[in-house]
Design brief:
This protein has one domain. Helix content is 63%, strand content 0%. It has 4 helices and no strands. The longest helix has 20 residues. The chain starts with a helix and ends in an 18-residue tail after the last helix. Bound molecules: zinc ion.
């Protein structure tokens, strides 16, 4: 269930990233956005039964669900952009120092 939701969120993030060329796609920003979005989305998908998982898998393919998740991802992108963990914005040369 977690992987299913995560995969959907990552897919939506990738779509939104392409639509926002200015978006910083460094590892830190990407990880933060996905984490924020997943945290926001998870409460809706709590429930551990097989039936629940089947419903989730169908639910995640609905346009309406994807649209709702896209809102969460966009909100996460705004949050991360306003308080990025990478180095100063505008200073995009090179790769971020990951490893933390
Ligand atoms: Zn970044």
């Amino acid at each position: 269930m977690k992987n299913l939701l995560e995969g959907t969120v990552v897919g939506i993030y990738d779509e939104l990233r392409v639509q926002n060329p200015d978006w910083c796609d460094c590892t830190l920003c990407r990880t933060d956005v996905i984490a924020h979005a997943l945290n926001a989305a998870r409460p809706r998908y709590s429930g551990g039964t097989d039936v629940g998982q089947a419903l989730i898998s169908v639910d995640l393919q609905r346009d309406q669900t994807r649209a709702s998740l896209a809102v969460l991802v966009l909100d996460a992108m705004r949050r991360v952009a306003s308080n990025p963990r990478h180095e100063l914005p505008g200073k995009k040369e090179g790769r971020p120092r990951s490893g933390a």
